[in-house]
Amino acid sequence: MLKFTLKDQNILKEIHNFAKYRRVKLYLVGGALRDLILKREKANPDLDFAVKKSAISFGRNLARKMRAGFVVLDKERGACRVVKKIGGKTYTFDFSDFRGKTLEEDLKHRDFTINSMALELGSAFNGKGIDGLLVDPYGARQDLKRKIIKVVNNGSFSEDPLRILRAFSFSSILGFEIDKETLRLARSEKAKLAGVSFERIRDELFKIFDTDKAFDCFTTLDKLKILEILFPEIKKMRGIGQGPYHHLDVWQHTLESIRQLDFLLKEIKDKEIQEYLDCIISASRTRRQLLRLGSFLHDVGKPATMRREKGRTTFHGHEREGLNLSAAIAKRLKLSNEEMYSLHKMVLWHLRPGYLADSEHPTARAKFRFFRDAGREALAVLLLSLADQRATKGPLTTMKARKQHEKVVACLIREHLAKNKEEKKERLINGNDIMKKFKLAPSKLIGKLLSSLEELQAIGKINSKEEAFKAASKLLKNKR
């Protein structure tokens, strides 16, 4: 029997009582009903409501009554949003005018059949469940049972081209297949995606990046030639061979890296790593999502740096070229400064763990410099390196080298996690100590000396104030 939780019933009852007082017939539509049937719970619930007319006026007055946030989403279509924190959760209530003369006509303009149900709000509190009360003219419950994503009508993507990406984000989140006719329509309407704002595109992409279906989605989006509309940079990546260490061209290697990262992230059981990946970087977007974007962009700089040297294909400096391209893409996607910083570190330093793994036992200095340069994204870079290496299976990539890379990176991850639990060592001497001892004026030199001393202290070369001053004196002689 379909039934709302007591908490949700109380919230819906408050909204219903207000609608009843205002003499408004209100319908709960779409996602909340879908999730109820699928027994899905969201950390922060969002509920959509349809009203015959004057939804914005209703939403504004409800927000005042509930002392909640309010914003107009679409004045022409009569859509607004009310946001309220209730019991530790953030509830989002969207209200919109009918997109037609009747409820059935409104539901016909919903994105997919699985979201084309409605429930007259007053009937939600009969205490007997709502199974027989759902308005379902387009087979929503049937398609939920079949696990199919299907447009309600053939003009759905023309009404809102973003729905093309929404089909894939729903497919990823719910584990549903996309109907063949819906895929055909997506291919034929894909050019219209160019007119969609990148903020909306970003949000759907990050929903995909929050699942372990990123590779499956990107592969299909690529086959439909949809991905290159969003990221024209990938056109240059196609067909570029990478020499005997690789078995795939640059673009196919990128897709395989995403696939390997999907596998890797499913393997991780360590609670500390999971918490790190689930850390919110900006808005509701996490490092896990950003890492998948980093995997997608890590080799984007290769086409511009490809050279033929003595019969070999090289990509010297591709990480720095990739840094510039990924920064431009991040700006298009309207990512925050914090997200751009994280992406910067992932793309710029994704080769470093591989260089460290060239030695079975990297030096303390080499490890210190990697962790210093990668900063708080060190763990993300190490995970990206593992996925990148696992996607590299050319004839010259030996099993011995692969095992050594895995072993060294695993050791680096353990060392990083252990160091995170240690208290950071205080500097043996500070900038004022250096200026006073050597009669120096404030300058960039002081910062460089402190950085060098920090490295020497971290690797155990200096352990006292006296040793720090001796090392500083030696460094100064070398710099003069």
Could you please describe the fold and organization of this structure?
The protein is an alpha+beta fold and 480 residues long. The chain has helices spanning 6-21, 31-38, 55-66, 103-108, 140-146, 156-159, 163-174, 180-189, 198-209, 214-223, 227-230, 250-267, 271-277, 287-297, 302-305, 318-332, 337-349, 352-356, 364-374, 378-390, 399-421, 431-438, 444-458, 465-479, and strands spanning 26-29, 46-51, 69-74, 79-86, 89-97, 118-120, 148-149, 177-178, 280-282, 285-286, 307-309, 312-314. A hairpin with a 2-residue loop joins strand 11 and strand 12. Helix 7 packs antiparallel against helix 10 (214-223). It is globular. It starts with 5 loop residues before the first helix and ends with a helix. The model has no long low-confidence stretch (mean pLDDT 93).
What is the tally of helical segments? 24
How big a fraction of the residues is strand? 5-15%
- Name the shape in a single word: globular
The radius of gyration computed from the alpha-carbon positions, rounded to a whole number of angstroms, is 28 Å
**Strands ordered across the widest β-sheet:** 3-4-5-2-1-6
What is the residue-averaged pLDDT?
93
Helicity, as a percent range: 40-55%
Number of strands: 12
Query: What multimeric state do the chains show?
Result: single chain
> Distance between the terminal alpha carbons, to the nearest Å?
81 Å
User: Structural class, please?
Assistant: alpha+beta
Low-confidence stretches: none
What can be said about the biggest beta sheet?
6 strands, mixed
